[in-house]
Structure formats: C-alpha cells, structure tokens
Design brief:
This protein is an alpha+beta fold and 741 residues long. The chain is built from 17 helices and 37 strands. The strands form ten sheets. A seven-stranded parallel β-sheet has the order 17-18-16-20-21-22-23. A hairpin with a 6-residue loop joins strand 6 and strand 7. The longest helix has 21 residues, at 106-126. The chain is flat. The two termini are 51 Å apart.
C-alpha cells in the first residue's frame, strides 16, 4: 500500500505581546452582590483573625477561600488579601468549587476587615443592600470617593472579589498517623527545618526536600498537635510493586544476540539487573540496592530491559521495526516494598549524571491509588526533572493489586506525572487488559496517555528474566518499554525533539472519528499506539501529515502563512492537530498543578471586523480569547483541555463532510497563546511540538501540491524517510579515522 511520508516543516514564528485589557472590573454576568454576603465574609475573616492571634510559629497567616465555582486566574481574589501568596489549591468534595489557600501577613487580615466594613456600609447606604454590574459601570455618578475611606479602584476590585467567594476559613488536618508518611507543609516565610526545630523535631536533611518531609508516626502526630494548620498533603512512603501474573515459567532460553555497536541508549530505573543473561553486553548496569540475597529481586528489572534490548525477537508478533537498543540500567529498588522518598531523591542525581540519555523507562509503581487533590511526590519530581532537563519518562500505569476486584481502582504513583508518557496495558486484540487500573489525574488531566500491548491470558508477553530463563507473563511494566523503544527511535534515530516525538506518538492514537467517553478516556487515554514505527511516521496517501516546532517567547507565538491546497476555491480537507509541551509544575498548587497554559488555534484566516488584522477560524471552534466571547473556566478545561500540556483537536470526517470555503485570505494560521498562573516568566522559552494531519475528503493525494506551496511561503519541507535516517544515524555514530598522509 502506498503511503505518504511525514513531513518536517521549518519556518519562522512571530512573537507578539498581549494587548492590555482596559476597562472596569466586572462580576460574572447576572451576579448581584448583597451586603449580607459581605457581612458573612467579614465574620469569616474575624474568626480567622482570632485563630492566628496567639500563634507565633510562623509570622504570617494561612487562610483558605472556597469560591462559588471553579475560577480562572482572573477571578481569584486580588484586592481582598493584599500581598498574598497562593500556597495550595484543591476542589471541594463535590468537585464543583475551587478551594485556594493563601499565605499573607497578619495585619493584612485586619486591614481587609476594615475595608470590607466600609464596603458593607456603602452597599447599605447607597445601593439598598445590593450592587450589580450596571451599577459598577456608572459608579462615579453614584459614589463620591473623595468622601469614602476606600478608593474607586479597590472598591471595584473588592466587589468583584466578594462576588466570587463562598466562604473563608482556616484549614486544619487532625487525623493521627500510625505509619511513616511523606508530609507536605504549606510554604511560608520560614524554612521548614527551622519550623520543625521550634516544635521539637530535629529532622536530618536527607528527609527534607523543599516543603516535603519524610516523618515517622510520632513525628507526624507531634506536628499535628503543635501545627495542624501547616499540613497541606500526606501520602504513605512505603510503596509496594503490584505482582505480575506468570502463565508459564522457566522456559529454557537459547537466544543469542550480536554485540552492540552504536545503537541508541535508553535509561531504565527499576529493580536491579542480572548481568548473566544472554543480552548483558547490551546493558550497562548500576546497583544502588546493595547486597542482594534474593534472586527474585533481579527478575522485574531484567525482564523490562529484555524488552527494550530484544523485544521483537522475544515477541516476533510485536515487531515494531525499531531494532535493538542499548540500556543503561539503574537498580534502585528491591522487588517488594521500597521507600518512595529515597527513590525520589535518587532519580534527579541519576538524570544529571547521564545527560546523553533522552528517554527513560520507569516501570516501578505503587500499589496504592493516587490522591484526588494533589500529585504524588514521585510524580512531581519526575515533572520537575523533565522541565529542567531535555528528557522524557515513560511510566507504567501500574497493575491492579491482587485480590482487588474494582474497575475504578486508580493508577498508582508515579503514573500521575503530567509531563511523562503514562502507558496502560491492552491485550493482543486491543482490549483493555484484565489487570488495568483507571486514570484521570486531579479530576482533569488525561492519564494514562496511551495504551500498548502488555500481555494477558489470551497472549502473554515473553521476557527474559534470568540467565537461560524466559517466561510468559503480563503486566503494565512490559507495556511501557515498547513505548520507550518507539520514543528513542523517534528522538535518537529520526532526529525529532522530545516535544515532537511525544506529539507524534499521541497523534498516532487519535483516530479521526474515534471519541472516547469520559470513563473510556480514563482507561485508554488517547488510544492504542500502532505496532510498527512505520505506521506512526507514515500516513495514508490521501493524508498530509507534518510536524512543526516552536518556542514561546511572548504571549502569542503565531504564523499566518501556512498554505493549504485548494480545489475550486475551497479546502477539500478535514484537519486534526496534536501539540505537546513540558511546563513547569508546582505540587504546592494542588489541583492547579501546571503553571503554564498553551492554547492552540489552527485554521483558516479571516479578517477582524474591528481592524485590519486577522483571526483564526480554528478547527475546534475555540473562542476563549475572541473579543466579546466568554468561556467559563470549567468549560475551558473540559472542552478545550485548558492547562493540560497535551492538546488534541480535530474535525469530524465522514463521506458527508464538505469542502470548506476560503475567506479573503487564502492561507491558514497557527497560534499558540501563553498564559501563566504564578510567575509571568514561567512560560518563556518553553518549546512545543505540533503534529498536523490533513485528510483529503475525496481521496486525492495532494502532498506534492502542499510541498510546492510551502516553498513559496517561506516553509522548508523535509520528508521523513526512515531508511535514509537509519543510514545517516549509523554513519554519524561511526568513528572516523583520518589518514596521517
């Protein structure tokens, strides 16, 4: 079957700063603020003020606000709590409201109470107890601010703040512990070590990482007694790897393999590696576990590396055409229980010491479920590493523990890592594996990302786990390494960036008319990755697939010169696009975990009515930033994946799809707008990878026209030819000897 090759497009993106949005603050449409609401907030703040009067452990105060719904950054309080710092965020028990925790000065509470009392009096005296948006628009004709104790700006901002608040309170954790746990405390103006010492805890530095602490039961209970207001999150430290099912053990192995040469290296973080297996020349191993007396401690890690090195020969029916890979294997855990905190501290050291490795496989996972309101410490450290270093992790979605019969049992840490690719298992026929677990992270993020073969009763996976021994088994641990192989091929052999490689892989799962419902999405993620690398890189002969990279430097990163072939003055295509990026994340922010949002728009250009510039008629009808349009935060997250670092948008395609008309400009546009939650600079210089596929509605191959049109519009195109890339890779990795003569 003839297939079109994927194209790499290189062109220039323009950068534009955000235009200031002037105008008076406004409440949500239809909202009317009453003096009763103001009075309730005043009473709530007085209770908070009394709570903090006799506490001297920290200098400031921690106050939580429950909002009326899920709020965007612009609807968080601005005037009511001056000088505040957001230190935590979660959703209410019903998942319909934001609860955000702030750290601020003590006198800030008192000043706010005074200010709100003035506002309450104004509402009673001037507005008969109620104020609306109509009143705000003509506020200067209603109030002489020269005669009030509050200025116009603070009054308007405070009214809007108050309209978004449900209640104000101090959050406490009072549940005693019987086990060692990883505790996170709220960030204040005092170092965690100093706080702990003042309450009688002398914790060594190797049990403290930023605001995350490893404490035993007695230490936790003392912290609860002395400062229950400080504890933001807690999870158990001791994790247990769920056991895989073996269907046939101790198959004699007669496999042989050639010596490695210049093949790409994949990093593996797992249980230790057995150096006596047949493929040991392909694996450079480091053992951090110490003396190993239990032979089974080698099984898991050795089996994972066997898939990475020689998976297609062990499992010919799963030949991905990627060849063999070398492995640098780090044994950091025994096969049973392990300390999450210890591993967390070790991982970054390993990554820093091995900068040549871009793809890392981690098939360790906790038996326990992830939390609903915050990312695990393990997932968080992986996200931080991927933001800081040019690497990508492939994480196993974890197996269902023995004796658990629950289709809704959640995945375990670190499978809640947002920047990583998390893999759930399917059987050979593409059905979800019997031992799978369910994703959905922080009630919003799509996890797992993808699915792949991990073996099941109908067709197990074959691994080499000991010298001369193979076994037929199943497990999410053996689905992840197949994905690591594909990523390493895309990055190391084909030369894609990690952003492009992740987008290519996820895009390969997103079929044209396949749409998972909410529950299916939590299991399948974006779908099942094709087996052969050629199916991922190449495309149908009636499709045009191309990859573009960019870097966000200002608010809008855009290009309005994308040429799309036309037929009789119309575009005969349906379009889909997948974008991936690696944002800075902040575990202290709870459910508001990713700091940077990239909003993707791609589609036809049309002239704006207000000026001579263009806007994009984007393929997914996203109107979030259009003039005169309003989208709630909840809808933006649900429908447009706001704050998710993977965006997949697509049009429906069927025999009834019609060609699209062209507006006055025959070109298409791409726009990536950047928004930051905390630091305005968090999104600067973050790279993104974008994959676009155009499906010709009438089955015509128009790739030649597209390539020609690109050359006329300042786009350089390169066909991704797998065979040529392999030859180039092999030549570039060979040592060149120069003749002395």
């Amino acid at each position: 079957m003839i297939m079109n090759k994927m194209l790499k497009l290189k062109g220039k993106f323009n950068q534009k700063s955000k235009t200031p949005n002037f105008g008076p603050p406004r409440m949500k449409a239809g909202v009317i603020l009453s003096s009763d609401t103001v009075h309730k907030v005043i009473n709530d703040l007085k209770k908070c003020d009394n709570y903090w009067k006799n506490i001297t452990l920290i200098n400031g105060a921690l106050i939580s606000i429950e909002y009326v719904d899920i709020v965007s950054k612009s609807r968080r309080v601005q005037a009511l709590l001056p000088g505040n710092k957001i230190v935590g965020a979660r959703f209410s028990d019903d998942g319909k409201k934001h609860v955000i925790t702030y750290y601020l000065s003590r006198n800030g509470i008192s000043k706010t109470i005074v200010s709100l009392s003035e506002i309450e009096n104004i509402l009673i005296d001037k507005f008969s107890n109620k104020i609306s948006n109509d009143d705000l628009e003509i506020i200067e004709s209603l109030i002489d601010f020269n005669k009030t104790k509050i200025n116009k700006s603070n009054f308007l901002k405070s009214i809007v703040d108050l309209s978004n608040i449900s209640k104000v309170f101090v959050s406490e954790l009072n549940e005693e512990s019987n086990d060692r746990k990883i505790i996170s405390i709220y960030a204040t103006d005092k170092e965690p070590q100093k706080i702990l010492k003042e309450i009688g805890l002398d914790i060594p530095n190797d049990r403290i990482r930023n605001t995350t602490l490893l404490l035993n039961a007695n230490e936790i209970n003392l912290l609860l007694k002395k400062a229950p207001y400080l504890i933001a999150m807690e999870v158990e430290d001791i994790s247990k790897i769920p056991v895989e099912v073996s269907y046939k053990d101790k198959i004699k192995s007669n496999n042989r393999i050639n010596k490695p040469t210049t093949e790409p290296i994949i990093g593996v973080i797992d249980t230790p590696f057995n150096k006596d297996v047949y493929f040991s020349d392909w694996v450079e191993s480091v053992n951090y576990v110490g003396d190993i007396t239990n032979e089974e401690d080698y099984y898991h890690g050795t089996g994972v590396s066997s898939i990475i090195v020689d998976g297609p020969r062990l499992n010919p029916f799963m030949d991905d055409k990627c060849g063999n890979f070398r492995v640098r294997h780090f044994g950091i855990s025994p096969s049973g229980k392990y300390s999450s905190f210890s591993i967390m501290l070790k991982i970054e050291e390993i990554i820093k010491d091995n900068p040549d490795i871009k793809v890392w496989n981690m098939s360790l996972g906790s038996e326990k479920e992830i939390e609903k309101s915050f990312i695990s410490p393990e997932g968080s450290i992986l996200d931080e590493i991927q933001f800081k270093y040019d690497v990508i992790f492939v994480i196993a979605g974890t197996n269902l523990p023995p004796n658990v019969d629950n289709n809704l049992y959640k995945i375990g840490a670190p499978a809640d890592s947002i920047n990583s690719i998390v893999v759930n298992p399917v059987d050979y026929e593409g059905n979800i594996a019997s031992y799978h677990r369910t994703g959905g992270v922080l009630s919003f993020y799509v996890k797992p990302d993808v699915c792949y073969f991990g073996g099941d009763k109908n067709m197990p996976v074959n691994v080499c786990y000991a010298p001369g021994q193979e076994k037929l088994t199943s497990g999410t641990s053996y689905a992840a390494p197949w994905i690591a192989r594909k990523l390493a091929f895309l990055i190391n052999v084909l030369g894609f960036t990690r952003e492009e490689a992740k987008a290519i892989l996820i895009d390969s799962c997103e079929k044209w008319n396949e749409k998972y419902n909410k529950n299916e999405r939590k299991i399948y993620g974006h779908g099942i990755v094709p087996t052969s690398i050629k199916e991922i890189v190449n495309t149908q002969n009636d499709e045009i697939k191309f990859v573009i990279s960019g870097v966000s430097q200002k608010y809008d990163t855009y290009n309005y010169q994308l040429p799309i072939p036309m037929n009789d003055g119309k575009y005969p295509f349906a379009a889909k696009a997948t974008m991936c990026y690696f944002p800075r994340c902040d575990r202290d922010q709870g459910v508001d975990y990713t700091n940077t949002e990239f909003e993707l728009k791609i589609g036809r250009l049309k002239s704006k009515k207000t000026d001579s510039t263009y806007s994009i008629d984007t393929i997914n009808n996203d109107l979030q930033d259009e003039d005169g349009e309003a989208t709630t935060e909840e809808k933006a997250r649900r429908e447009f994946r706001k704050w998710d670092n993977t965006k997949c948008i697509k049009e429906k395609f069927s025999t009834r799809s019609k060609d699209k008309k062209s507006y006055d400009n025959p070109l298409w546009g791409i726009s990536v707008t950047t928004k930051n939650r905390l630091n305005p600079l968090d999104g600067d210089n973050i790279k993104f990878g974008l994959v676009v596929t155009l499906k010709e509605l009438h089955g015509v191959n128009r790739i030649g026209d597209f390539i020609q049109m690109c050359s006329f519009n300042q786009w350089f195109t390169e066909e991704v030819d797998i065979d040529n890339k392999i030859d180039l890779y092999n030549e570039s990795e060979n040592d060149i000897e120069f003749d002395d003569n």
